[in-house]
């Protein structure tokens, strides 16, 4: 398997899949898979399982996010049954953003969700279904031991190859690891991210560049994806394009990341 691009789409906040379908169509020339967030940024969205099913209907491979914030054990088992009925078998388990409304549920953790997938998801109830493939997110610090049982890892968002490479040198993990990268669409977005979490602080050089030219955020991601690919220690990149997904798709294709050129073989990019 070559270096993969996993493109995140913005989940619908209204009962319509039109915008999701448009993103899937636009990103189709460069995406090997689509990551579908779950109640993104603490807002109610269409189920990630339903959108993942739509991705498959359009011929794509989907990874459905499932967050621990909004679930209890019974609800999570329901989601596994729904996923199997829809043919969705690849998940990324996340802690979940702070909700806009109400309080988060602490009935299940990422660790408990992983255990439920391995136990309940491995019972005779799911006989004949494809086995679930389970991923976990990780910060660029020491990895929680239970995450070693994941099938793949996705790192927190990084803005330099040095940060990713330094962390990769400390990690012993047998499965694929995808580097998390995100388009910084504006200086205002960068300030908002910094206010929300110290892990999301955007380097000042990038903030200044985006302030001068909004396209600089897309260019920075395309350059970073190239550096991650050249590093050799990552199976691919998880790319969050936010509202710049059209420009992102065009720049990735222009930089040689089209799926057609990568399928052609080594040296085609």
What is the rounded distance between the termini? 15 Å
CATH class: Alpha Beta
The proportion of residues in beta strands is 15-25%
Helix % is: 25-40%
Characterization of the model:
With 269 residues, this protein is an alpha/beta fold. It has one domain (4-263): TIM Barrel, CATH 3.20.20.220. The protein has 10 helices and 8 strands. The protein has helices at 18-27, 48-57, 73-86, 110-119, 161-168, 187-196, 204-212, 216-231, 245-254, 259-263; strands at residues 4-8, 33-36, 62-67, 90-94, 133-138, 152-157, 177-182, 236-240. It has an 8-stranded parallel barrel with strand order 1-2-3-4-5-6-7-8. Helix 8 crosses helix 9. The protein is globular, with a radius of gyration of 18 Å.
């Amino acid at each position: 398997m070559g270096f993969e691009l996993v493109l995140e789409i913005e989940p619908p906040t209204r009962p319509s899949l039109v915008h999701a379908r448009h993103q899937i169509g636009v990103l189709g020339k460069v995406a090997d898979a689509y990551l579908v967030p779950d109640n993104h940024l603490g807002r109610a969205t269409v189920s990630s399982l339903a959108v993942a099913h739509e991705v498959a209907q359009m011929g794509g491979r989907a990874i459905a996010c499932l967050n621990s914030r909004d679930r209890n054990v019974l609800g999570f088992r329901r989601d596994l049954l729904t996923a199997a009925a829809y043919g969705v078998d690849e998940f990324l388990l996340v802690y979940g953003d702070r909700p806009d409304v109400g309080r988060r549920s602490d009935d299940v953790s990422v660790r408990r969700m992983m255990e439920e997938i391995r136990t309940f998801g491995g019972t005779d109830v799911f006989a004949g279904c494809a086995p679930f493939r389970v991923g976990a997110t990780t910060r660029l610090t020491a990895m929680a031991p239970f995450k070693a049982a994941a099938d793949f890892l996705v790192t927190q968002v990084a803005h330099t190859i040095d940060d990713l490479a330094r962390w990769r040198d400390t990690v012993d993990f047998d499965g694929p690891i995808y580097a998390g990268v995100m388009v910084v669409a504006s200086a205002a977005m960068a300030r908002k991210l910094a206010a929300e979490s110290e892990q999301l602080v955007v380097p000042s050089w990038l903030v200044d560049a985006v302030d001068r030219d909004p396209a600089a955020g897309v260019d920075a991601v395309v350059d970073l994806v190239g550096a991650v690919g050249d590093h050799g220690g990552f199976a691919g990149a998880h790319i969050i394009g936010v509202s710049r997904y059209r420009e992102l798709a065009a720049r990735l294709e222009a930089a040689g990341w089209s799926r057609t050129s990568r399928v052609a073989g080594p040296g085609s990019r």
